[in-house]
Amino acid sequence: QVQLVESGGGLVQPGGSLKLSCTFSGDIFRAYNMGWYRQAPGKQREMVARITSGGTTQYRDSVKGRFTISRDGTKKTVYLQMNSLKPEDTAVYYCNAEGTIGFTRGSQTWGQGTQVTVSS
After folding, report:
1. What pLDDT shows up at residue 70?
2. Is residue 26 within 8 Å of residue 3, measured between CB atoms?
3. C-alpha–C-alpha distance, residues 65 and 79, integer Å
4. pLDDT of residue 8
5. What is the pLDDT of residue 104?
6. Taking a C-beta distance cutoff of 8 angstroms, is the pair 20, 83 a contact?
7. What is the edge-to-edge ordering of all strands in the sheet holding 77-82?
8. Rounded to the nearest 10 degrees, how much is the dihedral formed by the CA atoms of 42, 45, 48, 49?
9. E strands within the chain?
10. Are 49 and 57 in contact (CB under 8 A)?
11. What is the block-wise mean pLDDT of the chain (120 residues), using blocks of 10 residues?
12. What is the pLDDT of residue 68?
């Protein structure tokens, strides 16, 4: 059973940086597409960045050029480097794993979420 544990959230001033980490366990890491999603109060959860098992990345328009997603197969960890943070980036950030092969194809696993607050 896949488990995801996020870390790295916190309070940061506008223009600052944070790096989120998500550690994966319970299956073969390279068989999963990984992503970061966020949900602000009163809003729907939205995709922030995704990275496929092959390393292809995808970002929502509002974070392009500011956020970078990466994955480390040795550490079974996916990262989200967030620079030039804005108040509108404030949300709970969730890590997601999407299965790509065999009976796990299409499966979705979520982490518990980590709060990111951008405020002066």
Report:
1. 98
2. yes
3. 16
4. 96
5. 87
6. no
7. 3-7, 18-25, 77-82, 67-72
8. 170
9. 3-7, 10-12, 18-25, 32-39, 46-51, 57-59, 67-72, 77-82, 91-99, 108-110, 114-118
10. yes
11. 96 98 96 97 97 96 98 97 98 97 90 97
12. 98
